[in-house]
Design a protein that fits this description.
single chain, Serine Threonine Protein Phosphatase 5, Tetratricopeptide repeat, two-stranded antiparallel ribbon, 10 helices, 2 strands, globular
Length: 311
């Protein structure tokens, strides 16, 4: 599948039948260590390495959860909820940030000129998520995230069946949660609801983004009663994302990282073979500037996965 098909443009797909616009699927990538956590100190940190491709990552450390900013693909890092696995700390990071800011400014202007335009609203929500990932501090991140949240809430109020509205609302909520020391659990629970709503409306949106992000959200969030983590739910949704969008590298990498975490050696070996065959073809399908950040992230994670398997 070419990156320009069924897309919101710029080489990325949003799985919306609307006009084209720069888009790369988002995902939640959760990484964390075990340990007890208190639901009152959930911290979410979004990071990303693929301009457009997001994965929520959660990282867990003993004690209170604190925000940990990362610059990698779109992942949520809640010190106990989303831990970034490998961030794209590369020379191109400045270029990625510049592009994200430019997209944000353009989308913001478009939305302000026509606040009742559904497409302009969700595109602005998405641009806010992307630009917030490069925020210099929590105050700026919160400000940008709230802009996206407001735009998406307005869209959903007008059109409750807007898959993009629910999806990018969840994404921007993740950015907001990253700035909170207390009360992030409530935001995480709202993220869960919004991703579920998006999934019910269009499970294939953003290359199976709803299932991918739900899987990552459950992957290493602390379990009940501290948070919503669940290995069985994580496996269910990550495997479902691969079924829905088998052409998309992010889905396979997230699932592989899950299998490694769970020490599921049989499935690790199976997925390794699939990804080895998939990546060369994907490099031809997902090309251009819009996918440069995604590939920087994917290549780094793929290398790390192979190194872990060899140990």
């Amino acid at each position: 599948m070419m990156a320009t098909t069924n897309s919101a443009g710029n080489g990325r797909r949003a799985h919306l039948e609307t006009t084209a616009i720069a888009e790369v699927p988002r995902s939640l990538s959760l990484r964390g260590t075990s340990g007890e956590r208190e639901s009152t100190s959930d911290m979410v940190v979004v990071s990303r390495c693929a301009q457009g491709r997001r994965s929520w990552r959660i990282s867990c450390d003993k004690g209170d959860w604190k925000p940990r900013a990362r610059s990698g693909r779109w992942r949520l890092s809640i010190l106990g909820l989303f831990a970034a696995v490998g961030l794209c700390l590369c020379e191109d990071q400045t270029a990625f940030a510049k592009r994200a800011e430019q997209n944000y400014q353009e989308a913001r202007k478009k939305f302000q000129n026509c606040t009742n335009d559904a497409e302009a609203a969700w595109q602005f929500g998405r641009a806010c998520f992307d630009w917030a990932d490069f925020a210099k501090d929590d105050d700026q991140r919160e400000l940008i995230a709230n802009e996206g949240i407001a735009a998406c809430r307005q869209l959903i109020a007008r059109d409750p069946k807007s898959v993009a509205g629910h999806y990018y609302l969840a994404m921007d909520l993740g950015q907001l949660a990253q700035t909170k020391t207390l009360g992030a659990l409530r935001i995480v629970q709202e993220m869960e609801r919004e991703f579920k709503s998006a999934r019910e409306l269009d499970a294939k949106f953003d290359d199976a983004g709803p299932d991918r992000n739900l899987g990552l959200l459950y992957f290493q969030a602390p379990g009940w009663p501290a948070s919503i983590g669940s290995r069985s739910k994580a496996r269910q949704h990550l495997e479902r994302s691969v079924e829905l969008a088998p052409h998309y590298p992010e889905n396979h990498l997230c699932l592989l990282e899950g299998y490694l975490k769970w020490d599921d050696r049989k499935n690790v070996q199976r997925e390794l073979k699939i990804v080895e065959e998939l990546l060369p073809k994907a490099r031809k399908d997902f090309t251009g500037e819009a996918w440069a950040q995604s590939w920087a992230d994917w290549d780094k994670r793929w290398k790390k996965i192979r190194e872990k398997v060899k140990k």
